[in-house]
Amino acid sequence: MAKKKKASSTSKKIEDLKSFEVETEGTTMTTNQGLKVNDTNNSLKSGERGSTLLEDFLLREKITHFDHERIPERIVHARGSGAHGYFELYDSIKEFSKAGLFTDTSRKTPVFARFSTVAGSKGSTDLARDVRGFAVKFYTEEGTWDLVGNNMPIFFIQDAMKFPDLVHAVKPEPNNEIPQAASAHDTFYDFVSHATETLHNQIWVMSDRAIPRSLRMMEGFGIHTYRLINAKGESHFVKFHWKPKLGVHSVTWDEAVKISGADSDFHRRDLWDAIEAGQFPEWEFGIQVVAEKDEHKFDFDLLDPTKLIPEEMVPVKIIGKMTLNKNPENFFAETEQVAFLPGHIIPGIDFTNDPLLQGRLFSYRDTQLSRLGSPNFHQIPINRPIMPTHNNQRDGHMQMDVPKGQTAYFPNSLSGGCPHLSKMSEGAFTSYEERIDARKIRTRSESFSDHFSQPALFYRSLTDWEQQHVTDAYIFELGKCTQQHIQERMLYMIAQIDNDLSKKVAKGLGLKVPKSIDKPINQAIGADAEVSKHQPPKKKIYLDESPALSQAKTKFDTIATRQVAVLIADGFSMKDYKKMTDTLKKEGAMIKNIAPHGGTVKSDDGTVQKVDAAIATTESVLFDSLYIPGGKESVKELQKHAKFIKFINEALKHCKAIAADHDGAKLLDETYVKDFKDDEAICIDAKPSVFITAMAQHRNWNRMKKAEKIPV
Ligand code: HDE
Description:
EC 1.11.1.6, Catalase HpII,  Chain A, domain 1, heme binding, binds CIS-heme D hydroxychlorin gamma-spirolactone 17R, 18S, six-stranded parallel β-sheet, 712 residues
């Protein structure tokens, strides 16, 4: 079989990985000891029909390895997809940071990024309603820096101490291991309704951000406030942002549910295919910088990870770009074995006292020990830094290096004092000397106690259709809870964010918003006595709206990588087809021919077109838009298959752009499209440019209210 041409790319890290690659082509089968094998199908037996002999070392080696080939999946973020790429800096920010990757614009820093869902197991659907992990490993010349973030700018909890409770609540319930990859169940909302600090992240999860159209179309956030340290040793607070070049776009919940059935690898496949096609995903990298002196000027605490800094208050300064241009060679070796640690830091960046970040600094190293099984996990090829490493750490399971010499301690004279220490001026990392004068105390700062202002700001900043999606999501999620007291407690909490929202959700649940819950809210918070003591009775409004929080305000200027389903059968008009698809391809769209059967179809001028998917094997939800060229015979044939009608009706319901030329429009007349002829995104006998503009809008949300009634 001809080998598929791969998108090429190289970097210091890719070269390093190459030295570990093992080719299969042209090789002879051997055991792990290099012994040539002549039979891998039959075990050694006492006679043709006899029992298997203990002597069979070939069988034992093969089976033993197989028996142990699984490792524990990540306790959270088990389901993930990764890719290689590089980071480029537009402008030096040496006034803020001395880090090489932030000061040297000539560098191309190799990266490996892994995107993930949080709650589901390794094999769960990509389209779960969930936060997405956005972890990037920068292989810098000063050591590896891991920015382990999410696609939402805030987190559920304020203190690492609560993380096991949060995760236990959202994961499948312990008695029956139900539900998989879903927050819509009693234990999650039982927890959430008792911990008001979760409400901000929780309302983001109800928004479309939790069901991205593509991993390539979501933002990324470092969440915590970090520090940037310049060459003079001065510190600035910083929040890190990733902004996708393709804009931020999502699917609807109805699509998410259907995609989970049609292709549960939808996001993984989309990322892989885009990179293989040379359509490299790109994100711009931005920083929000706050001077030390301004630490306390906000209505919230910079150390509180449930708060964002509205971009309207501190703009995001774009300083660079990440491009992902190479798929892994082996999923397990790279995407599964990659170990991200927030504690992997480099000179020029430092931590703050955010109590969630502080806990993470412990957890990520610890978890690799049970997941990867050894303190030598940094020696696994994907985890090796591009810089040589030297220290006196020794031995442990699976030691891959062969450290030479007589000494493994410091100080020493027998090895000439090596490996020797470096000074800060020679590039050594030294922690920022923050002044601390404090009591040792197990508590939560009063400055962390406003839990409603920012979820309310988020909700206020959404457009009507986005707010509608949040309402529907709450009705779905709380509707799946079986305990009325949990639903009512949630309604009470939501009312603290927005009364009207709570009323709409209550209506959907067939309940009333309670005026109070079984205990006053302060006590309801339970364990966090300090938080409850300071709980403000009312939310604050320090900003009317933050447009940056709405997906409707992102980019709508490209159809690159959009999937267009072209519905054709024998006799389709080649003239229509060519005119439309040539223009779409020029804009970077991906054309997929969908026909009544697999193989090929013949156009009206006798040209043969390859079919990408027979209608029986695909679904409308896997595409961004659809086009039907003319051709009497073709349209007649398509009409015979009810699934094409369903296909079109679903695209219409999901507010997608639909185009048809000549006879193609007749097929639309058999669908609900006939009631939507004035719709801006229904393009009949229109120029390709009209269809392109409609598709670039991602969806025609003006259609949403009417389209919701379409019964598919
Ligand atoms: Fe994680 N998290 N986390 N998390 N997290 C893990 O580390 C943890 C948090 C995030 O693609 C684990 O290697 C604690 C915030 C991502 O491999 C574990 C706390 C943010 C990934 C862990 C948090 C994240 C993880 C599981 C609260 C966004 C996947 C496997 C103190 C800023 C990385 C592993 C990948 C993975 C612990 C909170 C993002 C158990 C204790 C906040 C993207 O160590």
